[in-house]
Amino acid sequence: MSPVSSRRVRTPVLATGFAVALALTGCGTSVTGSAPADDDADVTTVQNCGRDVTVTGTPSAVVGLSPSQTELLLRLGLADHMVGQAQVGTKTLPDDVAELAADIPVLGDTTPPSREELLGAEPDFVFSPTTYEFTAEQGFASIEQLDQAGIAAYVATGGCFDRRMEGTVDDLFIDLRNLGQIFGVEEEAEALVEQAQSDLDEVAAAIDGRPRPRVAQVYVEGSTLTAIGAGVEYDMLRLAGADNVFGPDDPAFAEFFAAQISPETLAAEAPDALVFAASDDAHEQATREYLTATFPDLPAVRDGRMIAISSADTFPGTLGNVSVVRQIAEQLYPDAFGG
Fold this sequence. Notes:
It is a single chain. By secondary structure, this protein is an alpha/beta fold. Helix content is 33%, strand content 17%. It folds into two domains: 21-200, Nitrogenase molybdenum iron protein domain (Rossmann fold, 3-Layer(aba) Sandwich), CATH 3.40.50.1980; 209-337, Nitrogenase molybdenum iron protein domain (Rossmann fold). It has twelve helices and twelve strands. The strands form three sheets. Strands 7, 8, 9, 10, 11 and 12 form a six-stranded mixed sheet that branches. Strands 4-3-5-6 form a four-stranded parallel sheet. β5, α5 and β6 form a beta-alpha-beta unit. The protein is globular. InterPro entries: ABC_Transporter_SBP, ABC_transptr_periplasmic_BD.
């Protein structure tokens, strides 16, 4: 494999998707605590990011800190429990659940809510895709601050700081089962797990035994080219039947799942297909134009095998992780899916 630059990605756009898990959770200032819990209420404790998350009774004032987390809560039948949704500008909720979110207050458009905004919603449970949303240095409420206020904070398993490099698509199943236990909706949670696993199994069966095309996953911002080589993004390609030309064994991805590369590095790999994340239609078009102009002789470009996926669907702990596996597989193996 060609050497890859180990310089880490720090662009503003990546900070909302790829690099968010790098931000450390800060302590910040203290906040006012909530009233003592009812000692007679049921207490549920689950493990999350190496810590205990304990809730007393069933949370009734919940905030989803991204559309992916909001969607999971809605599909579990918890719309009446929600007092806030955040980062709504990063992804449109699917049509079948969007109406359920119509009356849920919006706490932020494309960024997490500030400490004051979040605490002003008076939540008792906050569900986040990564630890970035709890970075005190960014003006957000830290996990420690929420603990002091008696607010339970839960991070998607794949977005835990220590998990980000090794995250897998089925980390989502851990989250669903934990949420099922916390909210007393175990059957609903298990139904979502079973459906997602069935979808993954269907893809695996369709591509079983077929030669795996060599695929590079990249991200383009302006003229900056980044390769993805670890984390849940890598696992999505693996499950879709791709032989990823960049992987965790490459030294460039020893500490971070993305690394900036030169055009020459990508050209030397000559991948059969390219997968790239885009934040919107304009970003997708700009990326296609860059790849076409920069790599006209690359097999992936020459054969028109440039596969765009939604940046929001690469966030840890989202059903989009599962749907992207099928989306990529269908374009890598059109004959296997009747294409």
